[in-house]
Amino acid sequence: MSQFRQTFARGSVRLGSVIEDFERCYQAAKSRDPRFDGWFFTAVTSTGIYCRPSCPAMTPKRENVSFHPSAAAAQQAGFRACKRCRPDAAPGSPEWDGRADVVARAMRLIADGVVDRSGVPGLAARLGYSVRQLQRMLVAEVGAGPIAIARAQRAQTARVLIETTTLSMAEIAFASGFSSVRQFNDTIRMVFAAAPTGLRRRAGDSSSARDGAPGALVLRLPFRRPLCPDNLFGHLAATAVPGVEEVRGGAYRRTLRLTHGPGIVELTPTPEHVVCRVMLSDLRDLTTAIARCRWLLDLDADPAAVDELFRSDPGLGPIVAKAEGRRVPRCVDGAELAVRAVLGQQVSTAAARTYAGRIVARRGEPVSDPHGGLTHLFPTPEALEGVDVAMPATRKASLAALVGALRSQRLSLDPGCDRAEALSILSGLPGFGPWTTQVIAMRALGDPDAFPAADLGVRRAAEALGLPSTPAALTDRAERWRPWRAYAVQYLWSAVDHPINHWPVPSSGNGVVNPVPRLSTPAKEAA
Questions:
Q1: What are the catalytic residues?
Q2: pLDDT in tens, 402-411
């Protein structure tokens, strides 16, 4: 099965909207293995229904089955979503996060809501291709064009709103990104074989929790098991910027800058899913908010493939055995993460939080948080122009250069950016050495093979495990961890007792997280 995942990730088993490697797909569906949910979808010609591979229904006959690389491709081929396994709500394919080619960049931008905001021409312009070229590439690899992919996403958003809110169907239609109520009704009937009112009656109060706060929803974010929350949520808690992030009541909370106004999310891990409570200024931002939470928590990763590689490694194997399923803690905004990476150069995590908190208080946009202590959005690059922070002159110059590159749009760190171009520009900025660029590659750009070998925590962990500890020697040793070196970093960090590895975090009496202890200083960057 691991060979299948590797083959699938290389994109060599697709032909248009159908996957050609029938036997491997059929065996995965026959085994009902949930690790393949989101990798492909099973369509049954005798019923007109498509399912996720783990669907508990009886395995269909071979002659009645075809396999599709996306829910949109299955829908475009005329199949309806299974009411039992809900394939439209499966975790996303991990390859769209990991790959750096145009198709993967397009898929990330569509997930972030670019088609709903700017249309297909806007998506194509962001990628530097014509609409026709982009359509051809997506159909060839994903089995559907950008409109069909966005429509499938809208249908899933609409289903969430239908089942978890008391909004009228007209309100849900426009909040989901549909241009008309008729288009909304037709799509829901086609995808789910039920009218919108039928979905609401069938859901009752069992599918998702309702929330009494205006604009608030409680959702379930699926993932491929296992998931280790210790390093993922522990890292977010230990590096939380005051005013923008906090841990309260056992949940990680933060503000989001969205198209139609600010939002707040609360994320709580459970063994089965991540509970996501979202409070939005406008429900039209729901799709984007969900996509950014999934990206932040790396929920579309394939932990089985990653851990299978590391399990046989004499250095990492024992650590993997202790706690499998570590994810890479990412970000909700690439520009924010890059600024925070600069602020974190040559200082402790506590000092970096202090610097960031001061910037937020001076330049961040205020927000209201009736349920907690969040106060601001992280400032935009435009708001950071000319900001004065009590830092060494070299780091001030680095921050100013970064802000200038982001403001001029010479540098883009959004989900659809060209990863190689972004890293090349970053490497040319003053004070941006290997540690800073690799941290940004790992946490902002989602590069699964990023490897900050100069990180002091990584080097100390390597030394404790009997691995080479100098950056050059460790980089050579890490060749066997490709293409998952960013995940190897998470396991290395876990070998040392740091607050970033502990979740849940001890709280004070009022449910707010205690002050974070001082962490090790990252490696020094070259000017």
A1: 51, 455
A2: 999 999 999 9
